[in-house]
Design a protein that fits this description.
With about 200 residues, the protein is of the alpha+beta class. It is built from nine helices and eight strands. It folds into two domains: about 5-150, Jelly Rolls (Sandwich); about 150-195. The chain is about 50% helix and about 25% strand. A hairpin with a 2-residue loop joins strand 4 (about 60-65) and strand 5 (about 70-75). The model has no long low-confidence stretch (mean pLDDT about 90).
Length: about 200
């Protein structure tokens, strides 16, 4: 396992579970690195999501089509996990699409290999549960923020939590992620420049 390439994911894993070198080494033959160019798709609508990806470099957009309109459900922050979760868990066709907003380097693992880890290594099963819980909690936070917060508050939080995302992701996707029109985001950014 190329240590330099895997530094970010190993650091991320250690936030949740204290693995030793042997336990970390178990995954070296199970993960693979894939590269997506901007605009390429990781999961297509109708696919069964059988992989989960760690964004080692770049940003992914999770969206779906409603009446011919693309609606962004999520922009995956750098150094986090992404998959079409309902499809991944239920192994049914995905209604979501995941594509690269920027060039991406993803560290992926197949669902079958995860199941092998879960069945044979209790720490990996705990880690998998924690990741699924984190993904669920984040989706609930997002719903809550849409119900209780203004677009300005959501934008300020995004600026604080993920400044690189604001810099690297096209504003049309940021606006969609925030649930506002691009023109509204432009006005919001200008008004904040005056603060």
């Amino acid at each position: 396992m190329n240590k330099e390439k895997f530094t970010a994911i190993i650091n991320y894993i250690h936030q949740f579970i204290d693995f030793d070198q042997i336990e970390i080494g178990i995954i070296k033959d199970l993960v693979k690195v894939i590269y997506l160019k901007k605009g390429e798709t990781f999961i297509q609508k109708g696919d069964i999501a059988n992989q989960i990806a760690f964004t080692n470099k770049g940003y992914l957009r999770v969206y779906y089509l409603h009446d011919g309109v693309e609606i962004t459900r999520d922009i995956t922050p750098l150094h986090s996990f992404a998959t079409a979760l309902p499809s991944f868990i239920s192994q049914t066709p995905s209604f979501e699409i995941i594509s690269a907003i920027t060039d991406c380097e993803l560290i992926t693992i197949h669902k079958n290999d995860l199941e092998y880890l879960y069945s044979n290594y209790p720490k990996w099963e705990r880690f998998g549960r924690r990741i699924m819980e984190e993904m669920f909690v984040e989706s609930q936070r997002r719903i809550y923020s849409f119900i209780t917060e203004t677009a300005e508050i959501r934008y300020k939080k995004l600026l604080k939590q993920h400044p690189g995302m604001i810099r690297d992701v096209p504003l049309k996707y940021i606006a969609d992620f925030l649930g506002i029109k691009l023109q509204s985001l432009s006005r919001l950014r200008k008004s904040m420049d005056w603060e």
